[in-house]
Specification:
The chain is mainly beta and 427 residues long. The chain has one helix at residues 2-16, and strands at 32-34, 37-40, 45-52, 56-61, 66-69, 72-74, 77-83, 92-100, 106-113, 139-143, 146-150, 159-165, 173-178, 182-185, 191-201, 204-205, 212-216, 236-242, 245-251, 260-266, 274-279, 283-287, 292-302, 305-306, 313-317, 328-335, 338-344, 356-363, 369-377, 382-386, 396-405, 408-417, 422-426. The protein has 4 domains: 31-126, Immunoglobulins (Immunoglobulin-like), CATH 2.60.40; 139-216, Immunoglobulin-like; 236-299 and 310-317, Immunoglobulins (Immunoglobulin-like, Sandwich); 328-426, Sandwich (Immunoglobulin-like). It has 1 helix and 33 strands. Strand 20 and strand 21 (274-279) form a beta hairpin.
Length: 427
């Protein structure tokens, strides 16, 4: 009986020491979260936790393998947690605690990594994870009293690190991180701000990107401009999208005091440039451009007027820069000792124009196999040759054509059954 009482006393004391189980009788009700439990794989991942609260709240954790992002809020909101990869040989668990600002109400999320490093789904397979590549297309622009930095997605990245400097060649100090492909600098430097971005995963952090920059003036937020903005510099144009459905992305350096930009286009460097669009930011996408070389100039605009046009940037589009598709409508006819092969050249989207067509015939008796019979122009659609010398012991004659250009080849084969006097089709 004495042992039983001691056990009960110990159990009661233990329960009193667990913060999640004790709540002040004056606590404000209504603080809750979803989910209350996260069952994560050994490879980890990013999870969103929704919080319902009547007031301000804060989240934290003592687990070093759980990273919290935007862990402060007011009212109903959410935050993200990044669960790092489990490389140990055992499972692990921990808590994320959410508490109201007055400390009278709290709730917890149990994080349970239920697969260990020995599983096939991750953990010990660190050799299969490589450091991510460097982010590209980094861009920076002002938004109210902040500067927004954006970039393209990097495959395999679990988060991105943002660095800032007051000069392009200066020291870049760590500013913060983001799980998405954008980051907002809410306290930019007065003057020019230069940013670089790196991608990170469980294998480590990749190289920093090329810099993007824009200017910011704390004193200039209340007044209007009285002079025209300067001419944009650093204009570039590059292809994006797929070959058969491209997009041209034009970028330039941000101009101080510009409220918007005009984009001009021409089909020649010294030709007439017509306005094709406007942008509030220092980037513009020209969709569905025609084949040929495209030239672009940019001007900056504010309430005082428009700047002079920039130097041009150019890029060439060739939607046919793909390999040919296989010949279509492959057929044949026989007249005496001659076979005439016929085919059609596909002109549908995604099929390139051939520059030459090679006719091949199979020689069955001299161990020659397939050999080039003739090389024709890229527009040829028929070929005639004497067939009896290429008939095998079963009476079959095998022939084919190869369509070729600088980007690749494709082919089709036709078979003639001389015994039954019919073509068996192509493959």
């Amino acid at each position: 009986m004495k042992k039983k009482c001691l056990f009960l006393a110990s159990l009661c004391l233990t329960l009193m020491l667990i913060p999640a189980c004790k709540k002040d009788k004056n606590a404000v009700s209504g603080l809750s979260c979803s989910p209350t439990k996260i069952s994560a794989l050994a490879d980890g991942g990013i999870y969103t936790i929704d919080v319902n609260s009547a007031g301000d709240w804060e989240a934290w954790t003592t687990s070093t393998w759980i990273e919290l992002h935007d862990e402060y809020g007011s009212g109903n909101g959410n935050f993200q947690c990044n669960i790092k990869k489990n490389t140990s040989s055992s499972s692990r668990s921990g808590y994320i605690t959410i508490m109201s600002d007055n400390g009278n109400d709290n709730t917890q999320v149990l994080v349970d990594v239920n697969q260990t490093g020995g599983s096939q789904q991750g953990g010990g397979d660190d050799d299969k994870t490589t450091i991510p590549s460097t982010p590209s297309n980094v861009n920076a622009y002002t938004s109210g009293n902040s500067i927004v930095i954006s970039w393209s997605t990097v495959s395999g990245a679990s988060r991105y690190n943002v660095y800032r400097s007051s000069s392009s060649s200066g020291t870049y100090s760590y500013l913060g991180y983001s799980y998405s492909t954008s980051y907002t600098d809410n306290n930019p430097l007065d003057g020019y701000n230069y940013y670089k971005v790196s991608a990170e995963n469980n294998a480590g952090e990749g190289s920093k990107s090329s810099y993007a920059y824009c200017s910011y003036s704390r004193s200039g937020t209340g007044g209007g401009t009285t002079t025209k903005p300067s001419t944009p510099t650093g204009v570039t144009a590059e292809k994006d999208g797929i070959t058969t459905d491209p997009v041209i992305v034009i970028r330039w350096n941000e101009v101080s005091d510009a409220s918007s930009y005009n984009i001009y286009h021409s089909s020649s460097a010294s030709g007439y440039y017509s306005k094709i669009g406007t942008s509030e930011y220092n980037v513009y996408s020209h969709k569905n451009p025609a084949n040929g070389t495209h030239y672009y100039k940019i001007s900056a605009v504010n309430s005082a007027g428009e700047s002079a046009q920039s130097s041009y940037a150019s890029v060439t589009i060739d939607k046919n820069a793909v390999s040919p598709c296989p010949p279509s409508s492959m057929s044949g006819s026989v007249s005496g000792d001659y076979i005439t092969m016929r085919w059609s050249i596909s002109t549908t989207m995604g099929c390139g124009k051939p520059t030459k067509i090679t006719v091949r015939v199979y020689e069955p008796f001299q161990n020659a196999g397939w050999f080039d019979k003739e090389v024709l122009s890229g527009t040829a659609t028929s070929y005639k040759f004497a067939w009896p010398a290429y008939k095998d012991s079963d009476g079959f004659v095998r022939m084919g054509v190869i369509l070729e250009n600088d980007y690749g080849t494709d082919s089709a084969v036709l078979i003639y059954d001389s015994k039954n006097k019919k073509f068996l089709g192509s493959y």
